[in-house]
Amino acid sequence: MAAMNKRTAVPGFAIGCFLFYMLLPIVATYAFSVATRWDRSILPEGLTLDWYKAAFTDQWFIIVFKNSLVLSISTVIASILLIVPTAYWVHLRVPKARPLLDLISTLPFAIPGVVLALGLIRLYARPPLMLARTPVMLVAAYVIFTMPFMYRPVANSLEAVNIRVLTEAAQSLGASWGRTLRQIILPNILPGILSGGLLVFATIFGEFTIATFLVGARYKTFPMQLVYFTRRDGRIASAYSVISFTIAWTTSLVILWIAAWGAKRTSGGGKHPTKGHTTGVVGD
Amino acid sequence: MTSNQAKKRRRKRKWLDWIPLMPFLFFCLVIMILPLFFMLKGSFTGSEGQFTLEHYAKMGVSIYAISFRNSILLSGITAILGVIMGTIVGYFICQLRSKRAQELVTALCDVTSNFTGAPLAFAFIVVLGSNGVLTLALREYLNWKIYPAFSIYSFWGLALAYTYFQLPLMVLLIIPAIAGLKSEWREAARGLGASSGQYWRYVGLPVLTPAIGAGLLLLFANAFGAYATAYTLTEFRFPLITLQLGFLLTGEVFRDPGAGDAMGILTLLMMGMSIIIYQVISRRGRKWQQ
After folding, report:
1. Which of A220, A244, A281 to mutate to test the interface with B (most CBs of B within 10 A)?
2. Which domains can be identified in chain A, with CATH numbers?
3. Could you say which of B167, B268, B276 has the minimum Cβ distance to residue A111?
């Protein structure tokens, strides 16, 4: 009996500590955002929604929320338009270019946001171009910055379903290009596009560094306002943090769900078309 | 049609096949490659346009040297902490009997590894700031005043916040490798009379080594390029290389472009080498997971 206890006590304790470390900051932020006062006592003194009200009624809230939404959606669209056709074409016709594409799409992992911003400003912020400090350039930088998140899941789906055979089979049965793409290719790589797109969306919605340097106060984003409030008013900052974090974890869970769905759809071929987990450089 | 003509036509088509890739390649060239190339060029160019090494010489002294040292220490220490704790936690997660519990903890790791930047920094202020939840609880219940010896705005405060996004990433990296340890190997080792210690020393750890080494490098790069977490906690007060770069970039007038370029190139080198070795090791390690 004692031996039994010992065998489960150590793993239980380790996982318990891990969960405490991982959950405490999240739980505390959520609680802080609905607490009246929490700087004098162990437990919050009361509950309130005042901080959310203050955050929502601030004239900047709608602006920064909208700006971040516009940036995220534009980046997702630009990224899909640029990367999906390229990845498809490479897998279909130019397998020789695959190592090159794999390399290019991994490069952004080695480029921190602040270095990318520095390079763009040094090259494009001087006359006559003066392009670097615009939202359009920011979206372009974001497409590069999030490229591994888009390319990897899409390339994995393309590999998992053997796109070449599918395309040739469809065409030999007389399907037109449009029909092949719409009815054969797209449904097969949709899980990859969806999880890539969602990951890009969540990453850009929370992106602070590149936005600060490229557009700064001229185009304020949600994370910029969050950082501003961490110095000005912790209560409103907590409401912003909760919103930001809620968007992030909802997206992560949807991505995991899509991965499970994709795996079920293509069960039989052992390879997962989309890995739910993001293993790469994600720290900021 | 002679076979020669056919070959020629095929070659021509092969060349044409590259054309649809051009928009993508051009985009990467303009937005990624050219800026980095001019950064490299700028890092070797003096104020009169002559070749110089003075920008790199500057990196060895004063604030630049301190920033590099701090960045390397912070990334190195949080990578080591993340790898050790992540491997242990990952092992125990694999031991969990309930599949459901395994999936839940893994999903938590997936969510938290993306929890970085300003919201994370703010969450740590709530927990461990001078009036933080944990700070108060420790003072009240254990009579342990962690301030001023500790501060969330100091090196170890940053290390604690960084480890938060390092640890779950390592768990996600190591779980496939641990799951690849076949129970037959363990039984075979036991059958041949090996103790549990011997099994780990000669079978378990060597098989996990590539994943652990790869994790160390990925986590190092993961922390080295981070900016928003450190900026939200310390603004520009704590010297890190990314914060130093950010400081040069603030303001419409560029303070010391040459130094900025040199810092950028050295940062790219550190990150690039880590990522390349990470890729090589993890590709080699994957053969055990088949």
Report:
1. A281
2. 46-265 (1.10.3720.10)
3. B268
Residue A218 CB-half CA count within 13 A: 11
Q: Across the interface, do B228 and A277 touch by the CB < 8 Å criterion?
A: no
The span from the CA of B94 to the CA of B109, in Å, is: 14
Q: What is the DSSP string of B238-290?
A: S--HHHHHHHHHSSSS-S-HHHHHHHHHHHHHHHHHHHHHHHHHHHHHGGGG-
A256 touches chain B (CB under 8 A): yes
CATH number, domain B54-289: 1.10.3720.10
Quote the distance between the C-alpha of residue A144 and its chain's center.
Answer: 13
Distances (CA, A) of B149 to A234, B144, B155: 23, 11, 12
Domain boundaries, chain B: 1-43, 54-289
Q: How far apart are CA A15 and CA B80, in angstroms?
A: 19
Q: Nearest CB to A281: which of B222, B264, B267?
A: B222
Beta bridge partners of A35: A47
Chain B positions in Cβ-Cβ contact with residue A38 (cut-off 8 Å): 133
How many angstroms separate the Cα of B171 from the Cα of each of A125, A127, B90?
Answer: 41, 48, 5
Question: Which residues are CB-contacts of A244 (< 8 A; sequence separation ≥ 6)?
Answer: A205, A206, A222, A223, A226, B118, B119
Q: Could you tell me if A277 and B114 are in contact, meaning their C-beta atoms sit under 8 angstroms apart?
A: no
pLDDT in tens, chain A (284 residues): 444 566 678 888 999 999 999 999 999 999 999 988 777 777 777 888 888 998 888 889 999 999 999 999 999 999 999 999 999 999 998 989 999 999 999 999 999 999 999 999 989 987 777 788 899 999 999 999 999 999 999 998 898 888 888 888 988 998 888 888 888 889 889 989 998 999 999 999 999 999 999 998 899 999 999 999 999 988 999 999 999 999 998 998 898 888 888 777 665 444 444 455 567 888 88
Instruction: Report DSSP state, residue A107.
Output: G
pTM value > 0.80: yes
Test mutation, A84, A89, A92, A118, chain B, max B CBs within 10 A: A118
Taking an 8 Å cut-off on Cβ atoms, the answer to whether A38 and B133 are in contact is yes
Residue B188, min C-alpha distance to chain A (Å): 22
ipTM of the complex: 0.91
Chain A residues in contact with B114 by the CB 8 A cut-off are 202-203, 248, 252, 278, 282
Interface probe for B, chosen from A51, A92, A105, A114 (most Cβ of B below 10 Å), is A114
| CB spacing of B115 vs A83 below 8 angstroms | no
